[in-house]
Design brief:
The complex is a heterodimer. By secondary structure, chain A is mainly beta. Chain A has strands at residues 4-6, 10-13, 19-25, 31-38, 42-49, 56-57, 64-70, 73-78, 87-94, 101-102, 106-110. In chain A, the strands form two sheets. In chain A, strands 2, 4, 5, 6, 9, 10 and 11 form a seven-stranded mixed β-sheet that branches. In chain A, strands 1-3-8-7 form a four-stranded antiparallel β-sheet, with no helix packed on it. Chain A is globular. In chain B, strands 2, 4, 5, 9, 10 and 11 form a six-stranded mixed β-sheet that branches. A five-stranded antiparallel β-sheet of chain B has the order 1-3-8-7-6, with no helix packed on it. Chain B has no helices and eleven strands. By secondary structure, chain B is mainly beta. Chain B has strands at 4-6, 11-14, 19-25, 32-38, 45-51, 54-58, 61-66, 71-76, 85-92, 99-101, 105-110. Classes of the chains: A mainly beta, B mainly beta. The interface between A and B is medium-sized, with 19 and 20 residues.
């Protein structure tokens, strides 16, 4: 089974901190994605990557950046955390255009 | 109008009931249709997918697509308490350029 592992299940950070969320997949998938999930808003795509060192903006990239230095690892960076970035963050990978496998999520609280 | 609409629920049914979960969409270019199940504090997992119109059955689950009405359904027969989760529909065009999730329906199956 494909495993997508997110480094932290719960995080609490202060406003203005730089925050790193890490995601690793073990099945050599080309595509990796970062979503945030909020009640009533569903899943919203932040950034995605089709290859190493490649990144594309999703629907809500403001306040975020990403890094993909190795195929298996995709990092989400909150440059200066704000309270409106309190959310559940989900990483996913896929071999093609769909059929995503998700990690268990990181619940981030910014205080 | 949102691109994909889904009743958020919660939907509560007794064990053994037939459950019908639905999504409507507006983009006629969507060709791939998926259902994900998300247990509490976990990431979504792919349940079923269909291509274009028609039905697909997998055990107690049946996915149905009516492209003429832009309407998709997931039926769960003989529902079990272990089916209690949030169900998200997702859809994509042929090129994966537009991959969208519905907001999810929370289902509770009561013993």
């Amino acid at each position: 089974d494909v495993k997508v592992t997110q480094s932290s299940r719960y995080l609490v950070k202060r406003t203005g901190e730089k925050v790193f969320l890490e995601c690793v997949q073990d099945m050599d998938h080309e595509n990796m994605f970062w979503y945030r999930q909020d009640p009533g808003l569903g899943l919203r795509l932040i950034y995605f990557s089709y290859d190493v060192k490649m990144k594309e903006k999703g629907d809500i990239p403001e306040g975020y950046s990403v890094s993909r230095e190795k195929k298996e690892r995709f990092s989400l960076i909150l440059e200066s955390a704000s309270t409106n970035q309190t959310s559940m963050y989900l990483c996913a990978s896929s071999p093609g255009l769909w059929g995503y496998t998700f990690g268990s999520g990181t619940r981030l609280t910014v205080v | 109008q949102k691109e994909v609409e889904q009743d958020p629920g919660p939907l509560s049914v007794p064990e053994g009931a037939i459950v019908s979960l639905n999504c409507t969409y507006s983009n006629s270019a969507f060709q791939y249709f998926m259902w994900y199940r998300q247990y509490s504090r976990k990431g979504p997992e792919l349940l079923m997918y269909t291509y274009s119109s028609g039905n697909k059955e997998d055990g107690r689950f049946t996915a149905q697509v009516d492209k003429s009405s832009k309407y998709i359904s997931l039926f769960i027969r003989d529902s079990q308490p272990s089916d209690s989760a949030t169900y998200l529909c997702a859809m994509s065009d042929n090129y994966g350029q537009n991959f969208v999730f519905g907001p999810g329906t929370r289902l509770s199956v009561l013993p």
